[in-house]
Amino acid sequence: MLPKFVTSIDIPPPAKASRGSYLKACRAVGEDLCVVGVGGLLTPNGKTRKTVRLAYSSVAPTPVRAFEAEKVFENNRSIDELLDEAMPIVMKTVSPISDVRGGKECRANLVEVLTRRLVHRLWEAA
Q1: Where are the domains of the chain?
Q2: I want to staple 22 with a disulfide (CB 3.0 to 4.6 A). Which of 18, 39, 56, 115 is the partner?
Q3: CATH architecture for residues 19-125
Q4: Mind spelling out the 3-state secondary structure of the chain?
Q5: Interval 58-91: pLDDT, tens
């Protein structure tokens, strides 16, 4: 029996009004190794509601999505209130380690700083 291979993947494009971005912190010396990466997609749903998707790299054994934290952004409150509620959930989703690229505490801080920066940028652009 011959092995089966994936020959294509169809990914539907996001809604027309969606905005996405990726922020990363990396070492300044040597190779371009990501210490923390945060990707986000914001899709407006009506005049006041927005759908937010958050994904993280280099802070867990594999890239992770913060599904539970994303649900917080479905509420109609200020962005700062939503981020304050979502960040503890994000921190439970990721599991940063200490290694040659950075310490656990540094990575945890970068997750929060980059998430807040990314979501603010997307929110303002929507």
Answers
A1: 19-125
A2: 39
A3: 2-Layer Sandwich (3.30)
A4: CCCCCCCCCCCCCCCCCCEEEEEEEECCCCCCCEEEEEEEEEEEECCCEEEEEEEEECCCCCCEECHHHHHHCCCCCCHHHHHHHHHHHHHHHCCCCCECCECHHHHHHHHHHHHHHHHHHHHHHC
A5: 998 899 999 999 999 998 899 999 999 999 999 9
